[in-house]
User: What shape does this take?
Amino acid sequence: MTTVAVLGAGKIGHTVLAGLLRAGRPGDTLIATARRPERAAELREALGVRVLANAEAAAAADVVVLAVKPQDAAELMTELAGHVSASQVVVSLCAGLPTSFFAKRLPDGTPVVRAMTNTPALVDEAMTVVSAGEHATEEHLAVAEELFRPLGKTLRMPEAHQDAVTALSGSGPAYMYYLVEAMTDAAILLGLPRAAAHDLIVQTAVGAAAMLRDTGEHPVKLREAVTSPAGTTINAVRELERHRVRAAIADAVEAARDRAREIAEEQG
Ligand SMILES: NC(=O)C1=CN([C@@H]2O[C@H](COP(=O)(O)OP(=O)(O)OC[C@H]3O[C@@H](n4cnc5c(N)ncnc54)[C@H](O)[C@@H]3O)[C@@H](O)[C@H]2O)C=CC1
Ligand SMILES: O=C(O)[C@@H]1CCC=N1
Assistant: This one.
């Protein structure tokens, strides 16, 4: 079995490691790195994986997962100099950074896969999109897919789509939680107890998501089925349109995509 090192085991790195352990991967095939010694101790205790220095971790792994913030990636690559070779696969989770960012800092020919997952990996419901960099072959993409498959769904897309993917499914859970928060406020306005409102909204979100997934119906059809003539739902939909919520969502997703592009420019 391959050895996987997750460099920078913060929120998403920890989530990936925990998911792989849940899927039955032996702890001794996993390595984590952390900046602070307290974090390293936490990871050892919570996950039972090895926690090493970045260079040591990378050298010992077949698959090197980069899970630091994009702003910390260049420094990390300096630390890895001489410890990664073209026989390994580097999988970057860094928002915005193209595979070329890593390729020019790694030995010639090192395969780099750009991946974007999301936090529902915590409950094995992630959406992960993988894209091949210049030296990544079918085999390397398969390695990355195999890594993320236990955490939810995986999809291959050309790297050119990754900034849009980041804005959509990478950041997407935050938009869903924002909607839940807003609906909870609305429920409070209507006088519902907060705990009951939370349960109503969460089950409604879960039910609607299951309908989308299990029926395969177009969302418009599903919405129409809820919207009775001269009923209540159409009044709410009219307000959403009046407040230009559809346009606001388009602007929001575009702004996230633009930020991914900006990160790449800032980091060079
Ligand atoms: N949070 C999310 O939903 C998602 C995040 N990502 C990407 O994953 C990466 C990490 O994001 P988060 O986990 O949210 O951030 P985070 O800040 O929780 O995790 C990053 C971790 O890297 C550590 N770190 C930084 N430099 C290091 C170094 N040189 N050596 C060892 N550890 C180092 C930090 O101490 C921190 O614990 C980012 O590039 C982000 O774009 C990708 C998909 C989803
Ligand atoms: O907000 C961010 O930059 C990261 C990337 C996608 C989700 N979280």
User: Anything to note?
Assistant: Residues 4-161 form a domain with the Rossmann fold fold (CATH 3.40.50.720). Residues 170 and 266 are 20 Å apart (CA to CA). The radius of gyration is 21 Å. The longest strand covers residues 126-132.
